[in-house]
Amino acid sequence: MRAACDVSRARAPWPFMDIWREAVGRPENPIPDPVSPLGRLAVALRNGRRGAGLSYAALSERTRSVSPGTLQRAASGAVLPKREVAQAYARACGMDVDEITRLWHAAHRGSLGGRSDSRSKGPEPRPDLVKDMPGLCAALEVLRPANGAPSFRMMERRARATGKDLSRSTAFRILTGKQVLNSIDCLEALLVACQVPPRDRKVWFDAWLRVQRHAVDARRDSDEREEMKQLESVVADNGRGQVSQETAVRMLRKAGFDALERYRRFDAPWTVECVQCGATFRIRLSDVVLTQTACPDCPKLNEHVREAWAELLTNPSGSLSRQLVRALRAATVLPARLQRGHLDVPVFVTDRTTLPTLQSGSWHPALEEALRRHIRRPFNLDVLVVQNYDTIPTPRNGHRHLRLAKAAGLMDSPLELYPPKKADRTNSTSKPGTAPRRHATPSGAVRAATAIPSKPTSNSGA
Question: What is the DSSP string of 212-231?
Fold first, then answer.
């Protein structure tokens, strides 16, 4: 008992010794860089303590949760304190807490303790621009320092206080890039732990949905590449599982095309020429193997389309009304195009009265059924109603259907639609013995055509 009393007597004067040491002017270590953001924070904290006339022991008693050593390190200017410590320091000294918080954020952005700033020299990732999981994890990594860099234990407490399941180890692995998010509930728990307001969480949830869609697309692309590799290994003529130049040219010739450039890859675009009509376009050898390509301007395809159109006009099933049949007979089918499984059939309308009738799309299934009996390959049907009236076509609609209509003799050249340039006086005078040159105008005899796409229908028949 006597020894214990002696120890208590020996320990009692120690707080007073600290006050005495500071009273006699024991100096603190100088701040390493007073003009830096971290140094300005340390200078503000020291001035606030000296203005309040408090020792670190008395300051610790006022905070009731921070030790004197932690408070002294917070004002040393060597390390960045936690935001809660700096705010408790300022509150105990009667300082402006908002000003200290502003100085702390400035110190964190460019100080020695800003981990995310020292690791990433580029701009901070934004959640509204996130597309994949690494980008989302990088954006979350910046979110924690912006909230004051709370400890992972504190984040766990905040999440559990709101009923969210988030352990400190999980938060550490996710925010350090060692683990990816596995659910949207985990993302919400991290947002709660970083004190993100509910109104600002929607942009993070949208980023999560984009990441999931990107993952699905990546898996689908990977599966397609794997299928292409397997298909190429089946049709290859060597042990490497790759189609050679000679085999590719032979397969292309068998499909009715001639190569205009050297073969590069099984799924790479290849410039070819149609043997029947001489049209030049680009296809893939994989599409040739799968019979998913054809010449877009081949007369054989257009012959099948015209045969199906003639069959449609007879209305063999009786499903079309008389008014619709009259409108179809007044229209003209233009050259069709079949490429990569899509069959585009443009229909030229002669007047405005038949346009509403043909725009209904009720006759598309009958046309699809007729086409399926003449074209022995799968395709997706897309009917385009080309209207004929006096107006200049916009660049959005293009001029392909205008050229088709002009080639069919249904209208003048689309190049004559635009007003002619002003000619010189020497050129405006006609030569003797020649007729004066006349220019067509959009409001005159020249008629334009505008492509109006109708609702596409699919055909699964062979």
Answer: HHHHHHHHHHHHHHHHHHHH
